[in-house]
User: What shape does this take?
Amino acid sequence: MGLDKPYLDVPGTTVFDADQSRIGYGLNQFCMSLMDAGNRERFRADERAYLDAWDMTEDQKQGVLDRDLNRLIALGGNIYFLAKIGATDGRSFQQMAGSMTGMTEDAYRDMMINGGRSPDGNRYRHEQEDGR
Amino acid sequence: MSAHVSAAVFTSHVPAIGAALDQGKTDEPYWQPLFAGYEPSKAWMTENTPDAIVLVYNDHATAFSLDIIPTFAIGTAASYPVADEGWGPRPVPEVRGHPELAAHVAQSVIQQDFDLTIVNKLPVDHGLTVPLSLLFGQVDAWPCPIVPIAVNVVQYPVPSGRRCLELGKAIRRAIETFDDDLDVQVWGTGGMSHQLQGPRAGLINRDFDNAFLDRLVADPEALAATPHIDYVREAGSEGIELVMWFIARGALGDLAGGHAPTLRHRFYHVPASNTAVGHLVLEDPN
Assistant: This one.
């Protein structure tokens, strides 16, 4: 009997559950280390070398180097942890969230000012053309 | 004389609100309507400043990494430093604790079958400090001590609305057996609809949020039965933070057989950054 995960059919959404947390442990703990100013400096000086000190998969490391937040979330990252990378880069939460939508920063900001993304057509994967 | 619950306050705790305050942007057209929405509550608060606040919030990968993930944690320290979340600590006063009340609540609530994790070292992030700023403004010192209750809403599954409501009831019973004449408010924070991740980021649901505000006041027992999936689907993956509001709601006396609370203020605004902001002040006449 498997676990009940009704949220798997919500489009464009990865729920950070115990399984995601398990595969993302090293990645998220790396992110946590960036709360220390000295670590941020060491990371900026040589990102690859800094990442190699962590128990992360090559995919996770490459995702960090590419700042590919959607990929990192698929690989177990959690947005509140990944936000530490954004803070290190001097990016706001809105810039980070917007970067995952395929929209430009201005278009995302305008969407929010105009009331945000409607839930209509965004509740179930089958409602979406590409079923993503 | 013993302590009593005088009111519950509910508010979103968006980090950008803290940044707007700290950077003097409150009069900008983007932010002005939001801060205006809290003015009635700030005025109410100056007349109704409590002796202590039990403040329910969630840590956002600040004090708790993935090394330890407590579902419910209570701070019993004398003070809580303002955390550096990566952008530098907010320039707000250190948060004073109420160790005696906190220890009492911890002991009482654990004896009522809620297994709180007791925390004495707890840097507090925007989840706790933004609500204080919204209700008290920019001050040199917070006007009263705080008992923080941190709830895991980061790693799924988070506690159910039902369990949060019951925890609130247990907290009320704990407060009412504290042997000192304290006026205590219970605050529930986080929400409302928002999603910060994935291609669906930016989701906002005004209808869901406003129905939640209606029912939280009028029919909290039924609303608390809302399953997690409804929050995720309707209010975004981070909208699940709303379960924390049930803890504050559960602390009001109508759910212990008393009179219904009095609505002092209600406010709703979209957006603050990625998030819908909701706010309620409910006085407890009991």
The mean pLDDT of chain B is 97. The interface with chain A takes residues 15-16, 30, 60-62, 65-67, 69, 84-87, 154-157, 193, 195-206, 208, 228-229, 232-234, 236-238, 270-271, 273-274, 276 of chain B (CB under 8 Å).
